[in-house]
Design a protein that fits this description.
- The chain has about 280 residues and is an alpha/beta fold.
- Helix content is about 30%, strand content about 10%.
- The chain folds into 2 domains: about 140 residues, Oxidized Rhodanese, domain 1, CATH 3.40.250.10; about 120 residues, Oxidized Rhodanese, domain 1.
- The chain has 10 helices and 10 strands.
- The strands form 2 sheets. A 5-stranded parallel beta sheet has the order 1-5-4-2-3. Strands 6-10-9-7-8 form a 5-stranded parallel beta sheet.
- Helix 4 crosses helix 9.
- The longest helix has 10 residues.
Length: about 280
């Protein structure tokens, strides 16, 4: 399998490829505007993917997957066609970009990778950037929805009841119910039977993802990476970091619980445990 990550060195060599599309997928938990810094400094030719706008607007859950048609329209408006090669990055390192990487794959686009280290590593190496509003030429994107990469509430509850592997990317304190949830109205704790691997444990301090060897070590004793896994987190964002890590280890079939704790922790019919 092709590594779902691409290094800054490799991407620099590919700049100028007419089929290459660069996408800034930054999202900040505190609600800060990610578009303004994108307009100030971005990778050459990059467009901005707003995951709150390209989402299911009929639910109050955060940035849930849009319909295939809505995603295709948004991708096409950003100049991304079905035959293009996409590299997604963010302004933090490896944080929100994996969510958009996963979203492209959910809608049938395999030619997508995440820039390891994101904009900070690219900038630190003195590589070229630009500013201003991009003007992409519209393209045609044909979606092919892959339901096997997505889990909803009932599917996750079924998996847990049957001994399936659900891996939670939230901090250990939130998982154990010792720290409050950042979103109001949610209970603290975790799903019965879920395992915890905080997403920071698959990343290096410099914002890059750990090597395959170190990822195996991080997963050892938590889950069996040879068996199917569903990743979850607070809102379905950092869960995609775990899905990316599993893809690096040859498990591109890892699913993400789209509603994650924003849904589970807010439902009265969902069992929650602590400790």
């Amino acid at each position: 399998m092709t590594d779902p990550l691409i290094s800054t060195e490799a991407l620099a060599r590919e700049l100028g490829d007419p089929r290459l599309r660069l996408v800034d997928a930054t999202w900040f938990l505190d609600g800060s505007d990610a578009r303004a810094p994108f307009l100030k400094e971005r990778l050459p030719g990059a467009v901005f993917f707003d995951m709150d706008a390209v989402a299911d607007r009929a639910t109050d859950l955060p940035h849930m997957l849009p319909s295939p048609e809505a995603f295709a329209g948004a991708a096409g408006a950003l100049g991304i066609g079905s035959d293009d090669r996409v590299v997604v990055y963010d302004q933090i390192g490896v944080r929100s970009a994996p969510r958009v990487w996963w979203t492209f794959r959910v809608f049938g686009h395999d030619q997508v990778r995440v820039l390891d280290g994101g904009l900070p590593k690219w900038r630190a190496e003195g590589r070229p950037t630009e500013s201003g509003e991009p003007t992409p030429s519209p393209a045609r994107f044909e979606p092919r929805f892959r339901p096997e990469l997505v889990r909803d509430f009932e599917a996750v509850r079924r998996e847990l009841a049957q001994g399936g592997q659900v891996l939670d990317a939230r901090s250990a304190e939130r998982f154990r119910g010792e720290a409050p949830e950042p979103r109001p109205g949610l209970r603290s704790g975790h799903m019965p039977g879920a395992k915890n691997l905080p997403f920071l444990e698959v990343l290096n301090p410099d914002g890059t993802m750990k090597s395959a060897e170190d990822l195996r070590a991080a997963l050892a004793g938590v889950i069996d990476a040879q068996r199917p896994v569903t990743a979850t987190c607070g809102s379905g964002l950092t869960a995609a970091i775990l899905a990316l890590a599993l893809a690096r280890l040859g498990r591109p079939d890892a699913a993400v619980y789209d509603g994650s704790w924003a849904e589970w922790g807010g439902r009265a019919d969902a069992e929650v445990v602590t400790g």
